[in-house]
Specification:
This protein is mostly beta strands. The protein is 0% helix and 53% strand. It has no helices and eleven strands. A four-stranded antiparallel β-sheet has the order 4-5-6-7, with no helix packed on it. A four-stranded antiparallel β-sheet has the order 8-9-10-11, with no helix packed on it. A hairpin with a 5-residue loop joins strand 10 and strand 11.
């Protein structure tokens, strides 16, 4: 329900650990789930997609984590590796992600299944 808390931790070995946290006691669930995401250490950012809190996980490939219908799902994005990312919104992009890849700034729009469209930025753009 609305009182559930989920903790996501990116690990140096390229995997992510996700566990439920009791909102009253702070106790972490005894059976966290672990998923290998790529060859690089994983960084985790909270983003908003479809009006709901979601997770952007960056390794050698970017991933999106979402909660919906009582289930958590993770999907890889069809996109090149990203270094950093956070939520972004303006008149043209209602809910998106602004990210960096090397010296390139990218603005992404993410679809329901983790698919994405690059709205701005390519390999020739310099930040």
């Amino acid at each position: 329900g609305a009182s559930e808390l989920t903790m996501t931790v990116g690990l140096e070995d390229g995997s992510a650990l996700r566990a439920n946290v009791d909102p009253i006691t702070g106790a972490i669930s005894t059976s966290p789930s672990r998923r290998f995401l790529g060859a690089r250490p994983v960084s985790v950012s909270r983003v908003t997609l479809d009006g709901s809190p979601s997770t952007l996980l960056l390794s050698s490939r970017p991933w999106i984590g979402r909660n919906g219908n009582g289930r958590h799902s993770m999907a890889p994005m069809s996109y090149a590796p990203l270094d950093h990312g956070c939520s972004f919104s303006n008149e043209a992009v209602r809910e998106g992600i602004v990210a960096t890849s090397g010296t390139t700034l990218r603005i992404l729009s993410v679809g329901e299944n983790g698919g994405n469209n690059a709205l701005l930025g390519n390999d020739d753009d310099e930040a």
